[in-house]
Amino acid sequence: MSVTNIAQHLTALGYDISRQEIIAVPEIAVEYLSHRYGAARCFVIGDHSLDTCFTQYGHQVTHEEAPVDAVVIGLSRWANFGEIDIARRLVEAGAEPVALNRDPTCPDGAVLRIGAGPVVAALESVISRPVTLVGKPSAEFFDAALRRTGFRPEETIMLGDSIKVDIIGAAGAGLRTIL
């Protein structure tokens, strides 16, 4: 879900919040890649909104087997072994594997769906280097979010839908949490 969609959803729920007040994992990933590579070329396993976010910030996105700086894994409803195999070969050729999260599941209305975690685990099982986690629950994610906002941890609330990923990660960084 894009930051704009998150803002619209929260506004519909009655929260007085603007797009600028929301920190989403794809934007932290974009910043990470920008610091590492400038305008990165990325093989992305994820939904279309992830492609849009990356290209909006100047990165090139491909779904083809071509030289890339990074293999990025986000939430994908349609990830498959063909994509994971391409990702494996790209990592073997030198691309950095980057995961937005390791969530095993993801709520979708009343349904609990498979998250990015199983795709990350599948890739990790066939490569010889660790996947860089730029999203929750990594301390780097919360540090980046606090830097962007200029807030201190005790002034910040993490609104999340996963105890294991959102709430425990945020609490570990000193943030207040809402599940």
First and last CA, distance: 18 Å
Give the helix tally. 7
Uncertain spans, ≥5 residues at pLDDT below 50? Answer: none
Radius of gyration: 16 Å
Q: Judging by the overall fold, what is the CATH architecture of the largest domain? A: 3-Layer(aba) Sandwich
Write the H/E string, N to C: HHEHEEHEEEHEHEHE
Spell out the CATH superfamily of the largest domain. HAD superfamily/HAD-like
Mean pLDDT: 92
Counted up, domains total 2
Q: In what range is the share of β-strand residues?
A: 15-25%
Specify the overall morphology.
Answer: globular
Give the strand tally.
Answer: 9
Strand line-up in the sheet with most strands: 2-1-3-4-7
| Estimated structural class | alpha/beta
Please write the CATH class name of the largest domain.
Answer: Alpha Beta
Helix content: 40-55%
Describe the structure.
It is a single chain. The protein is built from 7 helices and 9 strands. It is of the alpha/beta class and 179 residues long. The protein folds into 2 domains: 21-135, HAD superfamily/HAD-like (Rossmann fold, 3-Layer(aba) Sandwich), CATH 3.40.50; 136-179, no CATH class. β1 (41-45), α3 and β2 (60-62) form a beta-alpha-beta unit. It is globular, with a radius of gyration of 16 Å. The two termini are 18 Å apart. The relative contact order is 0.12. Pfam families: Hydrolase_6, Hydrolase_like. GO terms for molecular function: phosphatase activity.
What is the structure about, briefly put?
With 179 residues, the protein is of the alpha/beta class.
